[in-house]
Amino acid sequence: MKKFYGVFFAVLGLFLSLGTSAQDEPMAQDTSRQDKEYANPSVEGTPRGRFLVFRYDRTFGYDFNSKGTNELPVGNRDAQIKHSNIAEVKGYIPVWNRPHLKMVLGVGYEREEFNFKNQEGYNTDYAFHRNLQDKGLKSLSAQLAVLHPVDYNNYWVVRVKGQLNGDYTSDELNVSDYLRTTAELMYGWKKSKNFSWGIGAQAGYTFGRFSVYPAILYNRTFNNPDWGVESIFPANVNFRYRSSESSYFYTGYNLEGYSYVIKVDKPPFTGADSEFAARDLKTVELRHQNIKLKLRWEREIYDFIWFSMEGGYRLNLSYDTFEEGSKRKVTLIETDAGSAPYAQAELYFVVPKKLMLKR
After folding, report:
1. Residue 34 carries which DSSP code?
2. What does each of the 359 residues of the chain score in pLDDT, given as a tens digit?
3. Cβ distance 214 to 233 under 8 Å?
4. b/e map of 259-295 (b: 16 or more CB within 10 Å)?
5. Please, where are the H alpha helices in the chain?
6. Domains in the chain: ranges and CATH
7. Which of 9, 80, 99, 198 could form a disulfide with 117, with the two C-beta atoms 3.0–4.6 Å apart?
């Protein structure tokens, strides 16, 4: 049994180099002896792969100024959000292991909430803000990541991810309403154990609405092995410094895009209670896009238990509300969401040292 777990976690260490998305943590180190001969995206000097992650993110006070459009003339209202929070749990598990085909399954749950600052009347007489504050925006996801080494120097990476994004409850869930899919295809070259790069395309919501865009993978550990860079441009670029085997620092940016479908059963989207004319809509789509400039510290607590702290500045690029279905380009409400500082903490579990196969 102990030997079984050793093999399991060794394979998991390699799989977790695939298990993260372009918006998540960088690709992890190849820890599987049997795969050293075959090309893969990982490089030396990166931390061990994660298989279970708990994350809490808080963005501090910022403006949230909304205005109606000609499609939904509900007026304007300036407001402030005291803080917004994101809580997430995610995990990865290997499902297939062959020399030229490896797959890992990932699952996750995320919840985002907005807390408006108490200010005379704004969150009661402007229905859009009241709708938003009442909502817990959720994301339930599953992804499959595949590595196909072509030979010793080349490889394919494929990721497919499905998310149920919205304000649903279990008895209201309609998959077709809330489903959002993303995909990534990459062809790479493993130049050495310290340098791997690739080109490909990503399709998803990184830019707020669904779009297809080119992607460049660049993972490199420099001549000084404590320094390196890990990136899938343009989604993220991260520079790495290893102060010890149990402590890492990162700086860089992440480009984030979110898309939520919410049910609307009260003004300003439905009914005659609104002061303004409003059509009877069943659902709308919230889209927002951010760039996070960050400084991150990762530290071992005990062998396979690690934590990280991250802080920086979130630059909001867009936050608007659109019609759903066939009219997804019709803007209903435009919001100017201010930029703000943020802080993030994670507790996560990595491949145990004693259960890894020796290189």
Report:
1. G
2. 544 444 444 445 544 544 344 344 433 344 443 445 689 999 999 998 899 999 999 999 999 999 988 888 878 888 999 999 999 999 999 999 888 899 999 999 999 998 888 765 455 567 788 777 767 899 999 999 999 999 999 999 999 999 999 888 767 667 887 888 999 999 999 999 999 999 999 998 877 678 899 999 999 999 999 999 999 999 999 999 999 999 999 999 999 988 898 877 665 665 444 444 456 677 888 998 999 999 999 999 998 999 999 999 999 999 999 887 666 788 889 999 999 999 999 999 998 877 665 44
3. no
4. bbbbbbeebbbbeeebeeebeebebbbbbbbbbbebe
5. 2-15, 122-125, 127-133, 175-178
6. 2-355 (2.40.160)
7. 80
Rounded Cα distance between 296 and 275, Å, is 47
Rounded to 5 degrees, what are φ and ψ at 22? -65, -20
- Kindly state the tokens that stand for 207: 């830019």
Residue type (1 letter), 66: S
